[in-house]
Write a structure and sequence with these properties.
Aspartate Aminotransferase, domain 2; Aspartate Aminotransferase, domain 1; 9 helices; 308 residues; 4-stranded antiparallel sheet; globular; 2 domains; alpha/beta
């Protein structure tokens, strides 16, 4: 088996890593990287499962899609992958901190995520990795000093003494300054509880979608929702589509609302459950209305900066 299964809607850096890994192993990404096609901006689980053939060694998928906010059925996908003896992992950058995860229960082989979104670690925050216990003892592709067994790390031996758990996949020393914000954030999140966080997230994103549908879905506003409506199919952010999305995005920033834009026409709005209230969401809807009423978006060109 030499093929890797992913999808065309995944975050590009994940695909770059897969592309590079195939090249490092002497493969051909055009042949060995299978990308499932999206349907109207979403990925259907049955389309992914259909591509889980006997040629596939690894599947790497997002838990939540970064543009649409679609939540993948990780349990179903993991079960399907294992039926075909495929190792499966998930990029959980857009779900950790707002969606419950049961990796052990589902049998997920591995997962990884950044901590600067719902986990509040700030830009450049330390990333995290989950490895299923059944893979403990497997040798990492690139061994680093921080993956050495802690009891012998400072013996400075020339031979690698691999850690017996997920720590084996660590490479270098953690940046303590970027890890420090996580301590306070995790404490607050544990106090709130992930189930309660998820409950509020679904309610507050549902309220945002309701306001857009009722107030802004028709002319002259013409906003639309790019995120699945079903609670079990959406994460913690709402993708708002508009043909003038980039210019509206800039007008919102000028008003003090900070969305972010993803081409061709998606503005991502993420009402973080821990510190965003329903009145905040109502005010955002008024801003979406105001930039159209006052034609404020017309002040901006279609030229995009480096960061969107």
């Amino acid at each position: 088996r030499r093929k890797i299964l992913a999808d065309e809607l995944n975050f590009p850096s994940d695909l770059y890593a897969l592309y590079s890994d195939i090249l490092l192993r002497g493969g051909d990404p055009e042949r060995d990287l299978i990308l499932v096609k999206g349907r109207k901006g979403l990925i259907e689980e049955e389309d992914v499962i259909e591509q889980m053939t006997g040629e596939v060694a690894l599947a790497l998928l997002p838990s939540v899609y970064y543009k649409s906010g679609q939540l993948a059925d990780m349990k179903r996908l993991t079960k399907a992958a294992h039926r075909k003896k495929i190792v499966i992992g998930f990029d959980c950058s857009h779900s950790v901190g707002v969606v419950p995860h049961h990796f052990d229960e589902w049998g997920v082989d591995f997962a990884f995520w950044c901590n600067y979104k719902y986990m509040n670690a700030g830009p450049g925050g330390t990333a995290s990795l989950y490895v299923n216990r059944k893979h403990f003892g497997a040798r990492p592709g690139l061994a680093g000093w921080w993956g050495n067994d802690r009891s012998t790390m400072f013996n400075m031996e020339t031979r690698y003494d691999q850690a017996s758990d997920a720590a084996a996949w660590q490479i270098g020393t953690i940046n303590m300054f970027s890890a420090a914000p996580l301590e306070g954030s995790i404490r607050v999140m544990r106090e709130a509880g992930i189930e309660r966080i998820r409950e509020k997230s679904l309610k507050i994103t549902g309220y945002l979608m309701y306001l857009i549908d009722e107030m802004l879905g028709k002319a002259p506003y013409n906003y639309s929702i790019a995120t699945p409506r079903e609670a079990e199919r959406r994460g913690g952010h709402v993708g708002v589509a508009h043909k003038e999305g980039w210019r509206i995005n800039q007008a919102l920033i000028a008003r003090g609302v900070i969305p972010d834009f993803r081409p061709p026409n998606i503005m991502r709005l993420a009402p973080i459950p821990l510190y965003v209230g329903y009145h905040d969401v109502w005010k955002v809807a008024q801003h979406l209305k105001g930039v159209i009423d006052n034609k404020e978006y017309l002040k901006y060109t279609d030229d995009r900066g480096t960061v969107t």
